[in-house]
């Protein structure tokens, strides 16, 4: 396997962003991802919230090159 191909298949992330890479610039460090959660809300605003969830249909944006699309497009195959 070529070094380039191996790099394309390997992700440096091993937690929340495992398998995620910008398809445009290759950046893996940070993304803006649309998430869903449940908040405690009072008249004064929001308080604590539960776990945040997202899936392959969630909106995602790479802050490095501003490529945007569904998170599924960012997944390393």
Write the layout of secondary structure elements.
Elements (H helix, E strand, L loop, with lengths): L2 H7 L22 E2 L5 E4 L2 E5 L9 E3 L6 E3 L7
Antiparallel strand pairs: 1-4, 2-3, 4-5
The biggest beta sheet, please?
3 strands, antiparallel
Mean pLDDT: 88
Rounded to the nearest angstrom, the distance between the terminal CA atoms is 15 Å
Number of domains: 1
> Structural class given helices, strands, pairing?
mainly beta
| Structure summary, number of beta strands | 5
- Helix fraction? under 10%
Low-pLDDT runs: 1-7
Give the count of helical stretches: 1
- Characterize the quaternary organization of these chains: single chain
Shape designation: elongated
Sheet with most strands: strand arrangement: 1-4-5
Q: What order do the helices and strands follow?
A: HEEEEE
Kindly estimate the percentage of residues that lie in beta strands according to DSSP: 15-25%
Determine Rg (CA atoms, Å): 15 Å
Briefly characterize the structure.
The protein is mainly beta and 77 residues long. It has one helix at 3-9, and strands spanning 32-33, 39-42, 45-49, 59-61, 68-70.
List its traits.
single chain, disordered N terminus, elongated, mainly beta, three-stranded antiparallel β-sheet, 5 strands, 77 residues
Q: Can you describe what's shown?
A:
The protein has one domain (3-74). Helix content is 9%, strand content 22%. It has one helix at residues 3-9; strands at 32-33, 39-42, 45-49, 59-61, 68-70. The protein is mostly beta strands and 77 residues long. The chain has one helix and five strands.
